[in-house]
Amino acid sequence: MHSDMMDEVATILRQAAAEAILPRYQKLLAGDVEEKTPGEVVTVADREAEQIISPRLAALLPGSRVVGEEAVATNPSLMKGLDEGQVWLVDPLDGTANFVAGSSTFSVMVALLQDGQTVASWLLDPVSSQLSVASRGGGAFIDGVQVRTSTASKLAQECRGSVLTRFLPEELKEQVRVGSAGLAAVLPGAKCAGVDYPAVIKGTQDFLMFWRLLPWDHAPGALLVAEAGGHVARFDGSEYRPSDQRPGLLIGQNRDVWDVARNALLETWAE
């Protein structure tokens, strides 16, 4: 992925944030928010940001197609064929519930797939302007500085990380609570993948566990952490691919931490 393309996509995300998201930050009106599905909200900012981003991405790569979260909510058939050709994944406002609550914990995320493999990703924090980017084989960068995850091994009692249990079946939630007893801390997460994934690189979290795997939520951050030296895999150790939405993904600062977290959290039910 050449640097001009990386910069052009970053500019598109910044423009969408400036035009559609930040003017409404902590200024949403009652009519700007609605329930998309039970327990999940969408705002006019989500929709307008996607309307800005999608056509501009498509124009960057003739022949590519765009799969945006809000477009899929209207037309689920757009999810077909993620393993074919060049596909842009767009999460125009990750952490919408946080945004609605007035919290600054939200993000704008994009990933580019080539025949189903994530080859580039962008995660923008609109409030702080922090930009995290990665390209396959080209490394991970936060605000232009190349970043690496910690290579240190850790005991279970030294590991702290987030377990996103909202979509876990009830019986697995209890097993996770039992299995996590030996960890230093099990956190609820930021409720924003665009914040949680960079936290693994920065070292404020050693691991993450997700159950529901919508591709626009995880393709950007998974590539970012992997290119920084972290380990991203399904509970059985197999590769994560955005087109495969079977539940369950574990992210660790490195392979050793991934193994420790898996053993502590998941051994009772992953097999």
Describe the structure.
With 271 residues, the protein is α+β, with helices and mostly antiparallel strands. The protein is built from eight helices and 14 strands. The chain has helices at residues 3-21, 44-60, 69-74, 96-100, 170-179, 193-202, 215-227, 255-266; strands spanning 33-37, 40-43, 65-68, 86-94, 107-114, 117-124, 131-135, 139-142, 145-146, 160-163, 185-187, 207-210, 231-233, 249-252. The strands form three sheets. It has a seven-stranded mixed β-sheet, sandwiched between helices. Helix 1 runs antiparallel to helix 2. The protein is globular and about 45 Å long. The model has no long low-confidence stretch (mean pLDDT 92).
- Please list the strands of the largest sheet in the order they lie side by side: 3-4-5-6-7-8-9
* Helix-and-strand structural type: alpha+beta
Number of strands: 14
CATH fold-level topology of the largest domain: Fructose-1,6-Bisphosphatase, Chain A, domain 1
What's the Cα radius of gyration? 18 Å
Helix content class: 25-40%
Low-pLDDT stretches are none
Name the CATH superfamily assignment of the largest domain. Fructose-1,6-Bisphosphatase, subunit A, domain 1
- Biggest pleated sheet: 7 strands, mixed
Strand content: 15-25%
Q: Mean pLDDT across all residues, rounded?
A: 92
Question: Secondary-structure element sequence?
Answer: HEEHEHEHEEEEEEHEHEHEEH
The domain count comes to 2
- Please work out how many helical segments DSSP would assign: 8
Q: How does CATH name the architecture of the largest domain? A: 2-Layer Sandwich
Separation of termini? Answer: 37 Å
| Multimeric status of the protein | single chain
So what's the CATH class of the largest domain? Alpha Beta
Cofactor: Mg(2+)
Organism: Microvirga flocculans
Keywords: Magnesium, Metal-binding
Family: Belongs to the inositol monophosphatase superfamily.
